């Protein structure tokens, strides 16, 4: 969060990129409450199909279009939407994201998949397959979001038509095996997001959002806590399997990797974030 840009953020359209199983239900409800209290238009959801639809709406509307007056956007596939707002609407747009400790997010996503009791074509069934097989097919959710494009072109009638483009993903996953490339992507996140919050340090993340956008994220939302503990931490069909045990299994497998073994204190690097964040103060973020 850059202090010199706070005034710019406070007049900006706010776009929240939701990473699943990272406190998104709570944050989206928080933004709805803020919108109601400030008498704003309710936030617009940007999922895969709706992101395409809303992008087309902005490109095809005139200056009086209703999309130009919406101050809040949020969704799984909102990455890059600020470019559309800035270039086509002529407004400042600021994006933020909440990140969660990767292993905790992965395990939570896996158990949530079990809770949904459904399978996805091409993905090993989480109800019957171990987490490693399932995770190798689902891959990184954040990576999918960052490298999925929305391509738009004009039709013969002059209207814009957009579609989701995932062609960059295979090459992006190959490059992700290169540690230097991965580090460069992580290092550039602050060029795309004005605020990067942590699910494990939710109160301070809300304070940063309130400070950046001059909206009552902390004052209003610090007591909102949706979708926490609403599904089992143990798979009823596999009672021997629980979240803590699953996380430990994943971490142990990760620590055995050759490049991880070369890191200083690899076990400490994969410690749960709440322990790593103990003693961290807002002014140090």
Automatic annotation (TrEMBL):
GO terms for molecular function: sulfotransferase activity. It comes from the Eukaryota. InterPro entries: Golvesin-related_Golgi, P-loop_NTPase, Sulfotransferase. GO terms for cellular component: membrane. Pfam families: Sulfotransfer_2 (PF03567). PANTHER family: COUNTIN RECEPTOR CNR3-RELATED, GOLVESIN-RELATED. This is Sulfotransferase. It comes from Holothuria leucospilota.
């Amino acid at each position: 969060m850059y202090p010199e840009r706070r005034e710019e953020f406070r007049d900006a359209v706010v776009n929240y990129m939701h990473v699943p199983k990272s406190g998104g239900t709570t944050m989206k409800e928080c933004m709805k409450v803020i919108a109601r209290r400030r008498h704003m238009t309710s936030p617009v959801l940007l999922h895969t199909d709706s992101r395409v639809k809303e992008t087309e709406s902005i490109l095809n509307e005139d200056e009086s279009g209703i999309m130009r007056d919406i101050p809040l956007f949020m969704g799984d596939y909102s990455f890059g939407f600020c470019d559309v707002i800035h270039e086509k609407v002529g407004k400042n747009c600021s994006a933020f994201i909440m990140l969660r400790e990767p292993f905790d997010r992965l395990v939570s996503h896996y158990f949530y998949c079990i809770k949904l009791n459904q399978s996805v074509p091409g993905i090993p069934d989480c109800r019957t397959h171990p987490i490693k097989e399932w995770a190798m097919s689902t891959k990184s959710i954040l990576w999918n979001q960052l490298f999925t494009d929305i391509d738009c072109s004009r039709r013969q009638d002059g209207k814009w038509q957009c579609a989701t483009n995932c062609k960059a993903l295979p090459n992006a996953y190959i490059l992700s095996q290169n540690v230097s490339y991965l580090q460069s992507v992580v290092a550039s996140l602050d060029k795309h997001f004005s605020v990067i919050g942590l699910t494990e340090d939710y109160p301070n993340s809300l304070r940063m959002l309130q400070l950046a956008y001059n909206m009552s994220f902390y004052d209003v939302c610090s007591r909102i806590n949706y979708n926490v503990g609403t599904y089992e931490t143990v798979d009823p069909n596999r009672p021997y399997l629980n979240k803590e045990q699953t996380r430990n299994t994943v971490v142990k497998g990760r620590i055995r990797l050759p490049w991880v073994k070369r890191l200083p204190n690899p076990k400490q690097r994969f410690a749960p974030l709440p322990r790593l964040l103990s003693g961290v103060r807002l002014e140090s973020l």
